Amino acid sequence: MPPRPLRPCKHRGCRALVPGGMSYCEEHAGEDVGWKPDSVRGNRHARGYGSRWEKLREMVLLRDGGICRCAECRQLGRVRLATEVDHVIPKAQDGTDDPENLSAINHDCHKAKTARERRQGAAPRRRETGS
C-alpha cells in the first residue's frame, strides 16, 4: 500500500507537513488542542449558559426581531429566521455577554461564521457595524 500523503499540521498557523496518520507536527503534538468533553470543560451552566443566558438570549432575539443580523445577510439584504444568538466578538477573544456584543443569527450563518473564525485563528476581531 502506498504511504499516505503529507498534510499540514492542524495547529493554527503552522505550516509544517506531517504524515497522513498524524494530526500535529512534533512541535505541537503535546499541546492540548481541540474540543474537550463536558466532563473537562464543564456543562453549559458552568460555562455561563444557564438560566441567565436563556433570558438574555430571548431578549436579543426579540430586540433583533427574530431576523438574522449577520454581516453576510445584512450585506446581501437577505432575510432569514434567527434561532440563535452570536457573540460578535467571541468570548474566547474577550467578548462579553453584554447585549451590545450579542446578535441574533440563523443556525447556518452561525455555523459558517464560527468556521471562519476558527480558520482565521486567534487574530483579534473588530465588532461588525451596521444596522
From TrEMBL:
Domain HNH nuclease: 55-111
Sequence ranges of Basic and acidic residues compositional bias: 107-131
UniProt xrefs under Pfam families: HNH
InterPro entries linked to this entry: HNH, HNH_nuc
Highest taxon of source: Bacteria
Region (Disordered) residue spans: 91-131
Protein name: 5-methylcytosine-specific restriction protein A
